[in-house]
Automatic annotation (TrEMBL):
Keywords: Cell membrane, Dioxygenase, Iron, Membrane, Metal-binding, Oxidoreductase, Transmembrane, Transmembrane helix. It comes from the Archaea. The chain crosses the membrane at residues 40-56, 62-85, 97-129, 211-229, 250-275, 311-330, 336-358. Its cofactor is Fe(2+). Its EC number is 1.13.11.63. It is a multi-pass membrane protein. One of its GO terms (biological process) is carotene catabolic process. InterPro entries: Blh_diox. This is Probable beta-carotene 15,15'-dioxygenase.
Length: 371
């Protein structure tokens, strides 16, 4: 959310309230509806489907994850090379591409090397990084939408812990067997002995670890919701944003408690996290934002798709390169999922750095700061 976008959103809300009617939707409001609100409603509608997925083989989840990654998951980070160009003044195309390319090469290579050296530690690091990033994405979405019950940095960081922890932590409570299976698949790419791979992940799935995650997630959720409620009850903030926050949290808790983990993550990655980031990138691209202002969702998506296409293909080449180099090879659907996750881990770390830079430019973690 640029300063202009934030101002536009605030002005449209003010105009609507001043006339007692409804103002035309701003680009930010349309993007929020297209890429965040409607997908959240779709995920809520899919809850009955998610609830029966534990009855089916894990291969259903693997296929869902592959489809979601193919359709939108891989593409959502494929415009990172243009983010500095569009979000900061006086950054040339050449410099934007060069800096982001170096970040990806160095950090992505370090992640892959970490899996070869210590696959269990790298797996834990990937979970922690994804926890951070998915929380980071949701907080930015709330900021773009003008949700105003999280006015301090501390409250937004707590929201990050909750939002990122739901997809990463809650499946460990409800479906630890499948969660563990995925860990064994990933570690097994680098530890050829299957028995050794299973033993290596044992410490991650003890009852004590699961209890700590469960208690921590419940406490963080209640704390975040309670702080927001205290603000809206005191009349300091509007209730609409708080209600939306609580509604989304309820959907996410239900989704990750009910659905089988691989299926749940596959749907969430494509339908929730990736789409929200695509919406954010639409707003920092003047041409795509202009299409959004005109109500042209197809035009905005076409612009994004054109920009993302080359590096989306590059992402799949990274998956292929990882698959060609892992010691155990790729012989089953579980191996393919594991290879994809290692490749995604390699791309996630530099992606997080780019998104953190964008957060800083837009003042996501310094509410009210001049951007």
């Amino acid at each position: 959310m640029t300063e202009a976008t934030a101002t536009e959103t605030a002005e449209s809300r003010s105009a609507a309230s001043g006339r007692g009617g409804t103002a035309p939707e701003s680009a930010a409001a349309r993007v929020d509806r297209w890429f965040a609100r409607n997908p959240a409603l779709a995920l809520a509608a899919l809850l009955p489907v998610g609830a029966v997925t534990p009855l089916f083989p894990v291969e259903l989840g693997v296929a869902t994850f592959a489809l979601g990654t193919l359709v939108v998951g891989m593409a959502h980070g494929a415009v990172d090379h243009l983010v500095p160009l569009r979000a900061a003044p006086n950054v040339s195309l050449r410099r934007s591409i060069a800096v982001v390319s170096v970040v990806y090469a160095v950090l992505g290579g370090a992640v892959v090397a970490a899996f070869f050296v210590s696959p269990v530690a790298a797996f834990v690091g990937f979970i922690a990084l994804t926890w951070l990033h998915w929380g980071q994405g949701d907080v930015a979405t709330l900021a773009i939408a003008g949700v105003d019950h999280l006015p301090t940095s501390a409250e937004r960081w707590l929201a990050l812990v909750v939002r990122g922890g739901l997809p990463m932590g809650v499946p460990l409570l409800a479906h630890p067997e499948e969660y563990r299976l995925v860990a064994e698949w990933i570690v097994g790419l680098f530890v050829v002995d299957a028995t050794a791979a299973a033993a290596a992940v044992d410490p991650l799935f003890t009852p004590e670890i699961r209890a700590a995650v469960g208690v921590g997630m419940a406490a963080a959720t209640l704390g975040s919701v309670g702080l927001g409620y205290r603000r809206v009850r005191a009349g300091e903030e509007r209730r609409g944003g708080w209600r939306r926050d609580v509604g989304e949290l309820a959907v996410l808790w239900a989704w990750f408690l009910l659905a089988a983990p691989v299926f749940a993550i596959g749907v969430y990655f494509a339908l929730w996290h990736a789409l929200r980031h695509v919406g954010r990138l639409v707003l920092v691209d003047p041409r795509a934002a202009s299409a959004a202002s005109a109500g042209d969702a197809v035009g905005a998506l076409a612009r994004f798709g054109r920009d993302a296409a080359p590096l989306t293909l590059g992402g799949f080449l990274v998956v292929g390169a990882v698959g060609a180099t892992v010691p155990a090879g790729v012989a089953a659907p579980g191996d393919l999922l594991a290879v994809s996750l290692v490749a995604i881990a390699a791309m996630t770390l530099p992606h997080v750095v780019v998104v953190a830079w964008l957060d800083r430019r837009e003042g996501v973690w310094r509410p009210g700061a001049t951007r």
